[in-house]
Amino acid sequence: MLRINGVRNTLLLLLVVACAPAAPQTTSAPRGLSEAALTTQARAIHDRVLTLDTHVDISPNNFRLGAPNYGDDLPGRQQVDLVKMERGGLGAAFLIVYVGQSPDLTEAGFARANAQALEKFAAIHRLVDSIAPARAALARTAAEAYAIHAAGKKVILIGIENGFSIGSDITNVAKFHALGGRYMSLAHNGHSQLSDSNTGERDGVWLHNGLSPLGREVIAEMNRVGMMIDISHPSKQSMMQTLAITKAPIIASHSGARALCNHSRNLDDEQLRGLAKNGGVVQLVAFNSYVKCDPVKLAAREEAIAALRKEFGITATRQNEVTTQLDALPLDAKNRYLAAQEDITGRRYPADPTATVSDFADHIDYVVKLIGIDHVGISSDFDGGGGVDGWRNAGESFNVTLELVRRGYTEAQIAKIWSGNLLRVMGEVESVARKIQNAGR
After folding, report:
1. N or C: which terminus of the chain has fewer CB atoms within 10 Å of its end residue's CB?
2. Angle (nearest 5°) at CA 87 between 84 and 92
3. Band of pLDDT at residue 31, cut at 50, 70 and 90
4. Tens digit of pLDDT for each residue in 126-154?
C-alpha cells in the first residue's frame, strides 16, 4: 500500500478527494491580452493543475538499473522520461503495457504475449521502486494520483494496450489489476481473441462482429475488479456492444474526432455521444495522422503498406517491431522492401500535412461542443508515433495549456481536460467495483 510521508493512503482519502478537484475558477482570457500576459496566465495555470497524459509507450530497455534510464534525459527520439516530464510540467502519465497483435491465437501465442506484458509491468515497477522512488510513485486509485501529485512526485499509472496478453485465462484480468493495470483495451491493430479491431475497416474482414463471448466475460471481470475499459483500438461495433453491457463508464485512451479526420482510429459522432451518455471520457490524441489527414490518400497509403507487409511476411504494426522483422530478412529482400515503402510513402502517397497544437486543440473544441466539457481529456501516444508541432515531447506540454488559455478555457475547465475527467471516471469505476464485490459476498 502506498505511503506518502509515512501516512497510509486510506487515511488521506477524504482529504485528497475533497481537495483534488478544487482548481480555482478563473475567467476566460480577455480579448486583446498580450502574448506575454497570456503566457504568464497560462504558466500559472499549468503549474497549478494536475496534467495527465493517458498514453505513453515504453521500452523495457529504458528501465534498467544504471544510467541511462527513464530517470535521465534520454537522447535521440525518446519523447518521455522523468526529466522531460519535469521540464514540461507534465504531472502524470499512464505508461503502457503494450503487446502487438499476432495472428497466433493459440495457447503458445498467448503465453508469448503474456510474457511480454509481464516484462513491461516489471519495468514500470522498477522505475518507482528502484530507479527513481524519490521522484515518482505508482498510483492505483484516483485518490492516490492526487496524493502523489500533492507530495511533489510524478504520478505513474499503468494502462494495458491489447487484451491479447491475457490469453484465454480470465484470471489474468485480476492479476494485471493487482500489478497496477488500471485500463485495458480488448484489441489493438488486428483482431484478438476478445474483440475485433478498427483495422477491419481497412480490409473488410471481421472475426467476431464485435466482441467475442470471452470478450464479454472480460468486460464483466474488468467491471468487477475496477479496471477501466479502453475502446480506442477496438472496432465501432465492439465499442457499441461494450456500451450495452458495461456497468461502469468507459474511456477512449487515445483517439481523435472522426468528423475532423476520417480515420478508423478516431470516433464518429455516434460513438462520442454514446460515450458521453455512458459517463465516459475520450482522451484526444496528438497523433499527427489522427489529427490532420487526407482520408482518401490515407486509406490508399494504408492499403498499399498492408499489401507490402503481407508480401514480405511482416506481421508487426509498430515501427520498432516492423524494423526487427525487417532486420531478420535477407539483405536483398530488406532492400527491396525499403525501396517499395519509400515509393509508397514518398512518391505515391506522401505524408499528411503537419499537424500543430492548434490543430490538436480543434479536436478538443469539437468534442467539447458536441458532448460537453466533462467528457474530454488529453493523450499524446508519445514513443508510439504520437506528437504534433509544438508538442513533440513531454518537455513541451506547457504549449497545450497555453493554447487552451488562448482559446478562452478557464482554469477549472483546463483542470478537467488535463486530468479531472479521467480521474473522475477512474474513481467511478472503482466505486462500481466495490458495489459488485460487496453484492457478491
Report:
1. C
2. 65
3. low
4. 999 999 999 999 999 999 999 999 999 99
For residue 178 the three cell numbers come to 493487482
DSSP 50: -
Element (H, E) at 183: strand 181-185
The Cβ-side half-sphere exposure at 183, using a 13 Å CA radius, reads 34
Q: How far apart are CA 27 and CA 45, in angstroms?
A: 12
Query: Where residue 41 sits, what CATH number does that domain have?
Result: 3.20.20.140
Domain that holds residue 332: 294-351
User: Is residue 296 packed enough to be buried (19+ CB in 10 Å), middle (13-18) or exposed (0-12)?
Assistant: exposed
Q: What is the model's pLDDT at position 157?
A: 98
In 256-369 the beta strands, taken as DSSP E runs, fall at: 281-285
At residue 251, the pLDDT reads 98
Residue 284, helix vs strand vs coil:
strand
Does residue 10 lie within any of the structural domains? no
pLDDT reported for residue 353: 81
Q: Are strands 228-230 and 181-185 parallel, antiparallel or unpaired?
A: parallel
Peptide bond before residue 234 is cis, with ω within 30 degrees of 0: no
